[in-house]
Design a protein that fits this description.
Elements (H helix, E strand, L loop, with lengths): L7 E7 L4 H15 L14 H9 L2 H8 L3 E6 L1 H4 L6 H21 L4 E3 L1 E2 L12 H10 L5 E3 L19 H10 L3 E3 L11 H19 L2 H4 L5 E3 L10 H10 L5 H4 L4 E4 L5 H10 L5 E2 L11 E2 L4 E2 L4 H6 L5 H15 L1 H9 L3
The protein binds zinc ion.
Length: 347
């Protein structure tokens, strides 16, 4: 490696989509209970210029300011709200949101590449998501999906991720060699703040489910990205190792770490220092989730909390080769379709 790494941010959402999108969703939700309301997807019109502006003045401006090159871009996670309505509600909504991300990737082919949300719905067979995955990969060139382990929105009514319930999605993921970011959506349980509790709980829960099960025996090439720095996982690594030992599971390195990866959406230096000290470097992928849940400036540093590149550059735990892995190498390995696309672009 004799060049600077491409800085690939594997966790970005279209949180700045034009207001017409949210207004259409409001109509769709109103139509569930009020038959006089029409929510026709064809009535939603968003122009290329509106999309361009929403990106250029937000995510792209910040990428240039902070020095990141490419963002893997998926629909706004808290808006997925799979608990609302029926499968049909989610199917229409996912199709709209994915198409918008595909248009962003088309308008900015060097900076954005898509990842899809799934039309999940509580109690519905995940096999119903397969057609949308096919479309996202084949038609839109998406390189990953976001999988919600709790489409009920904070009530956890689905089986664990290791259950055969989820296998139709995993079979597709393996076929296309795409990873899933394990990402819940908004919490409709008042006990769980969406981004402060539900997200981090879900990250931790997904990891523990994988320890308890033997999913990666059935799918040795399946890849999960656990976002938000892995929730409580790095901090409680000793607990997880000890529990696995008591359950007579193999060492976590072979049991789950060939398949599970963590991002760097941890918004302070000591957190990144811990993550990079505890986790093998090949399991850490750069991400910021910008523009997302935490948008302010940290008064202790004078920098945005979600300007995570600074923490990677400043941590004493990484050599230049290891930084290259975090910024670029690991993302290209985990998102093999991104790697192929970059190679086709001569990058
Ligand atoms: Zn996210």
């Amino acid at each position: 490696m004799n060049r600077d790494p491409l800085v690939i941010d594997v966790h970005g959402h279209y949180t700045t989509a034009p207001a017409a999108l949210g207004a259409w969703r409001d109509l769709q939700i109103a139509a569930l209970t009020d038959p006089s309301v029409q929510a026709d997807p064809k009535a939603l019109r968003i122009s290329d210029d509106e999309i361009r502006e929403s990106i250029e003045t937000n995510q792209l401006a910040k990428m240039r300011e902070r020095g990141s090159d490419i963002t893997i871009f998926s629909p706004r996670a808290s808006f997925m709200a799979h608990h609302i309505g029926t499968l049909e509600t989610s199917a229409t909504w996912a199709a709209i949101c994915n198409e918008l991300c595909a248009r962003v990737a088309q308008l900015f082919p060097n900076e954005f590449i898509g990842a899809g949300m799934l039309p999940q719905s509580p109690g519905v067979d995940p096999a119903t998501c397969v057609a949308e995955i096919d479309k996202c990969v084949r038609d839109y060139g998406f390189v990953g999906i976001n999988l919600n382990p709790d489409p009920s929105g904070g009530h956890w009514s689905s089986p664990p991720l290791t259950d055969r319930h989820w296998y139709p999605i995993y079979e597709k993921m393996v076929e296309y060699d795409i990873p899933a970011m394990i990402h819940v959506s908004t919490s409709c349980n008042a006990c769980f703040h969406t981004t402060g509790a539900h997200y981090l709980n879900a990250d931790t829960t997904a990891f523990m489910q994988c320890i308890q099960g033997d999913l990666f025996k059935d799918f040795p090439t399946l890849k999960f990205l656990i976002p938000h720095g892995g929730g409580a996982v790095p901090y409680h690594w000793g607990r997880f190792r000890g529990l696995a030992q008591e359950m007579k599971k193999p060492l976590l390195q072979e049991h789950v770490l060939n398949n599970i990866f963590f991002d760097t959406c941890v918004y302070h230096q000591p957190g990144i220092n811990l993550l990079t000290e505890v986790m093998p470097v090949q399991n850490i992928l750069f991400a910021s989730e910008m523009i997302g849940a935490v948008r302010g400036v940290d008064p202790q540093t004078g920098h945005y909390y979600d300007d995570t590149k600074r923490y990677i550059l400043a941590t004493p735990n990484l050599s230049p080769e290891q930084r290259f892995m975090v910024f670029e190498g690991n993302a290209r390995r985990v998102f093999s379709r991104l790697d192929a696309k970059l190679k086709a672009q001569g990058r």
